[in-house]
Structure prediction request, 274 residues.
Amino acid sequence: MKLFIGPAGNASGATAPGAEASFKYIESIGLNLQELAFVQQVYLSPEKATEVGEQARQHGIFLSIHAPYFINLCSEDAAKLASSRKRISDSLDRAERLGCQGPVVVHAGFYQKRDKKECFDAVVTEAIDLSKAYPKAFLGFETTGKHSAFGSFEEALEVCKATKRDNVVPVIDFAHLYARNNGTIGFGGVLDSLIEYGHKSCHFHYSGINYGEKGEKNHLPLSSNQPDYAPLASALKERKNKFERVSLVSESPLQEKDGLVLKALLGRVGFSLA
Prediction:
């Protein structure tokens, strides 16, 4: 099993702004992943994306992308739906140009006044069209932390199954599941469901999390033990022969520092980075 760990966004410890400085720093501290954060906008031009992708390869950095937050594939507003498609399309285009191994991570949207089944069908339709338009990129639907948002574990998995597209994949945010399930998570059960699905290359987000009745409030460092990730290490060890690749993105406020914490935790059960 090949293992990749690193931060969401440019590393906070980098000595200069920009992706290349971040890649150099991530490599220097012994991590090997970065998720490019397009969360406010797709800030890379097509030409720059090709350049950044080459820089990542030079430093041995596994790349994924987080698409902008301002997406709602469940919307009944035609203008909002069109802008959501455009943000995802631009992200997928950059993923192809970057040569991303990991997915473009998407929050599908909010139920609002729509029935959950209606939302599900709408997301599946959009996912099929978008994934066909960008066959060299992976479109990843993330589990979400708020009860009002589309993205339970079951929804993320079933959307991918329903598309019957190899480049549409689930993205499991462990902290979001923990918040959505009111402070409980079964790591082994999550991994077993992915194995049953046949998903051998898995992309995960992790952090601590503060939550309430409506779900997620804000992310916390791993030292919060909300959740405790020691059981994840054990669960992965027991199933390491079932996965070809696992990528773990630190969304902790401590970014790469908690990347090193998880690397050490997994190292204690015998894992090393690719």
Observations:
- The chain is about 40% helix and 20% strand.
- The first helix runs from residue 19 to 28.
- The mean pLDDT is 98.
